[in-house]
Amino acid sequence: MEKILNAKQAKVPIWKSFDLIGDLVLLRAPISEVEISRNLLDEYKRIGEALLNELPYVKGVFLSLTPVMGEFRLRKVLHLAGTSRKWTYYREHGCVFKVDLESAYISPRLSYEHSRIAKLVRSGEVVVNMFSGVGGFSIVIAKMANPARVISIDKNPAAHRLLVENINLNSVEESVVPVLGDSVDVIMESLKGVADRVLLPLPSFSPRFYLAALEALGGEGVLHFYEFVELEKGERRGDLIPKAYKRVETVLRRVMDCAKAVLLGGRIVRSVGPRLYQVSLDVSIDKNLCG
């Protein structure tokens, strides 16, 4: 990307890294939809055409017009060059996923986390994925580990449809259970105490989600949190994990103060903006003190 921008002397604001998702490229820029004039649009399209010429395996180039936002964590994208279809097939860790850039959340930057979590899952475990999306975590877990079930909940109908298709594409129908609905409602109605492990890949620090995750666990288990944390002035990157855990622990105590929480590990997943990072935390929970 940097090579193309330097060679073409790009005259628009644009991040020099991009997401390659299947045969589609998603560019990002510090600019909103309303700020793109005709001249800027022409320049972005020129960059898109240059990428198509430079990368023969790329069939379409898009520009993200909004950050990931809203209840379903979606973004609006603008077609720049090549095919205008927004869906593609994306592969990682021997799995194939049908994805859509605009109707369901997808990030190849979570690929390492998908495999890392899968390697932690023990044979016969029941895993609840509270925000499964198109199945990134769930299907990789099913393929790499030997879970009894991976109950995969999502409220977005488009993501759920893709999840069902991806379960079939990867032949994991016996272990991955797709559920359309609000994860809190689903857990409170039918999944209390069933899980050995719960994934919360939707950043929010929400007491509502934390309580449901705790309720889903049996007496003991593990919660996997993914939260956004700001690096404030005077802080170091090494401060992010203890800072994130302190916030997580505070919320856990608020919703179930009888449970014992222990931080097993944490890592900085990625930078998502100026001084803003996504942090993953693996937290052991013991509810046996709750009586």
Your description of this structure?
The chain is globular and about 65 Å long. Strands 9-8-7-10-11-13-12 form a seven-stranded mixed β-sheet, sandwiched between helices. Strands 1-2-3-4 form a four-stranded mixed β-sheet. Strands 5-6 form a two-stranded antiparallel sheet. The longest helix has 17 residues. The protein is of the alpha/beta class. Helix content is 31%, strand content 31%.
Give the SSE map.
Layout: H1 2-8, E1 19-21, E2 24-27, H2 38-54, E3 60-64, E4 77-82, E5 87-92, E6 95-100, H3 111-120, E7 126-129, H4 136-144, E8 149-154, H5 157-169, E9 176-180, H6 183-190, E10 195-200, H7 207-216, E11 217-230, H8 240-255, E12 260-273, E13 276-286
Parallel strand pairs: 2-3, 7-8, 7-10, 8-9, 10-11
Antiparallel strand pairs: 1-2, 3-4, 5-6, 11-13, 12-13
Helix pairs in contact: 3-4, 6-7, 7-8
What's a concise summary of this model?
The protein is an alpha/beta fold and 291 residues long. It has eight helices and 13 strands. The longest helix is centred in the N-terminal third of the chain and has 17 residues.
